[in-house]
Specification:
six-stranded antiparallel β-sheet, 10% strand, single chain
Length: 312
């Protein structure tokens, strides 16, 4: 795959102001193929897959694993390693009384998870996308804020519009992200679960996007088109008490107007009100026979006037 991963990642980081490293994930039918990746690290302890993912996203490591490196069937099942989806796993008995009230609830949860089928793959690797060591990865992943995620989705929908429907399985939300993306090869957005946050270091304001890497260039092109229209991330705050027509007129030229007595530019309104307040106070000070109206008093009265306008 002839992709400039360094530029692709730089463009993604520039558009979304990412705080962690975009990374790739790839499954291997042969363990030896995974172990042949340049500068591959192998776990020296037992981990959750959330921890392995975090080593790529937070530390920039390239890490390979097999089913023996993962703590249990739940992690293995999502990525199709170790023939983990047996009757015991499907029953969800290990989650009864922990995450779900009854065995029926736990079984229903296991059945709802999007997982890679068992029996084909022996190993998995994660690596920073910019390193190009998984060229190409099966899926690309990145963590971002909700605002960045909707902007990325807007970029995906700029051309060839498609509505996205995503599910929330609850705990084991990695099935909503990399499990679903590896299985369906479609963009998959998730709200990371307890395990991802406790063991994988995912922050409270982060979501996870997983998708085939071909979608990245499409989304970046869409975001660049949106940026030319003045629609950029992070989104600038307009003000909750503003007349909205001035702002809408910028985003939708010719469709909204600020004409009329009421709607005015916010900064202009401040200047006009402040100017009138100063003139009123100054004229009053000169009419005073004692000229006792000092600047501190002027400032206090001006502040009071601005409070009446809702600016202080």
């Amino acid at each position: 795959m002839n992709t400039d991963w360094t530029k692709l990642v730089a463009d993604l980081e520039r558009q979304l102001k990412l705080r962690s490293i975009p990374f790739g994930m790839k499954l291997f039918e042969d363990r030896e193929e995974m172990e042949a990746i340049p500068r591959i690290r192998r776990p020296k302890a037992v981990h959750t897959l959330d921890q392995i993912v975090a080593q790529a996203a937070r530390l920039g490591w390239t890490v390979g694993l097999t089913s023996e490196d993962l703590v249990g069937a739940q992690c293995r099942a999502v990525v199709g390693l170790g023939a983990a989806k047996d009757d015991k796993w499907r029953s969800g008995e290990h989650m009864v009384g922990v995450w779900y009230s009854t065995s029926e609830d736990a079984t229903a949860h296991q059945a709802a998870m999007e997982c890679v089928p068992d029996g084909r793959y022996e190993a998995l690797a994660v690596a920073p996308l910019a390193a190009g060591r998984l060229d190409p990865p099966d899926i690309a992943l990145f963590y971002a804020t909700p605002g960045a995620m909707i902007y990325f989705i807007n970029g995906l929908q700029w051309s060839g519009y498609k509505r996205f429907d995503w599910s929330i399985v609850g705990e084991s939300a990695c099935a909503d992200s990399w499990g679903r993306a590896l299985k369906t090869r479609e963009p998959s957005l998730s709200i990371p679960c307890f395990a991802e946050r406790r063991y994988g270091g995912v922050l409270d304001d982060e979501m996870l996007m997983a998708l085939p890497p071909d979608y990245l260039a499409k989304a970046i092109a869409g975001m660049e088109a949106l940026a030319k229209n003045g629609l950029r991330y992070p989104f600038p705050q307009y003000g909750i008490q503003q007349d909205v027509r001035a702002g809408m007129a910028v985003s939708y030229p010719g469709r909204y107007t600020c004409r009329g007595a009421r709607p005015r530019c916010f900064l202009g309104a401040i200047v006009r009100r402040a100017g009138r307040s100063v003139r009123w106070l100054t004229e009053k000070s000169f009419r005073s026979s004692t000229l006792a109206l000092t600047w501190p008093v002027l400032l206090g009265r001006l502040t009071a006037r601005l409070k009446n306008f809702g600016l202080r």
